[in-house]
Amino acid sequence: MRIAVIDLGTNTFHLLIAEVAQQNFDILYKTNVPVKLGEGRINENMIIPAAFNRGIACLEKFAETIKEFKVEQLKATATSAVRSAKNGKDFVEAVLQTCGISIEVISGDDEAELIYQGVKLSGPIKQSSLIMDIGGGSVEFIFCDTEKLLWKKSYNIGAARLAQQFFKSDPINDEDKNALLYHIQIELAALFEKCEQYEPKILIGSAGAFETFAELIIKKKNYPVEIATAKTYAFNYDEYIETAIELLNRNHSERAAMKGMIPLRVDMIVMATLITNYVLGRAKINEIILSTYDLKMGSLAGFL
Predict the structure, then answer these.
(1) Assuming Cys at both sites, which of 42, 62, 191, 243 could form a disulfide with 38, CB separation 3.0 to 4.6 Å?
(2) Which pTM does this prediction carry?
C-alpha cells in the first residue's frame, strides 16, 4: 500500500510518501518546505494572510506530487500554529476546497504520542529517556523507558513563539536571555517534578533543531556522517556545548555563515539552544541523541 503523510508544522510543512508492506516500509519521496505559518502573529493566535497563502500554495504542490505517486492513503496532521489560530478552521477548510486534502488538527497530547511512536521506530530508547521535540509553536516532552511511554505533555513555548516575544537583541543579550529563561522556568515547572520521578539518563532530540545541531558539529569536525540517511546520531556532549556557546554568541549573519545551517533556523536555533541548555541543566543530563524520526514517522508507524 502506498501511503502519504503530511505534517503541517508551525515553521515547516513536510511530505513523506512510502510503500508499506508487512510491517516494513520503503520511503519513496520526502520533502519539506519552510512555509513559516506562524510568522508575524503566532502569539496573537492568527495566521497572517501571507502565511495563509504560502500554506495553500505549498499544499497544492504536495497534492500534485501525491497524485503523481498514485498514493492510496493520506494522513495530514496540523499542529500548534493551526491548533491555536482563530482562523485555523478557515485554513483547514480552504485546504480541503483548494487542494482536496483533509487535515486533522491534532491536540498537543496526540502530537506527543506521534513523536514518541516516530522516535521509538528509529531505535534510540535504550534506557530511561526524555524525548524533546522543539517545534515553532510548541515543544513536546515525553518520558519513556525501553518498554513504554510514561508521561507526555505539549507546551506552547515553540521557537517561533519565543522569538517573537523575547528575541529583541542579536546576539541575544543577558536581559532578553534571562526574560526567556524565566518564562521557560515557570512554564516547565511540572516537567521538572516529573524529572525527579523518572530520572531520565538521556535526552533524545527529535529531528528539527537537533538535526541542525548535529549538522553544525559534523560539518565543523568533518565527520563522515550523513544525517539525511541516518536514523540516529549520538552527540559528544562537549561538542554540543561548544556549538551552543557559538550559536548564542554570534549574530544573524555569523550564524547564517556556519556550515550546516539552513536559512529557516538561523534565528530559531538561538531559541532552541536556550531551551535545550536549560532542560539539560535542570534535568542533570549529559547524554544527547538525535532521532531523525519524528511526528511524520509516527504517523507512518500507524500504518505498519
Answers:
(1) 42
(2) 0.96
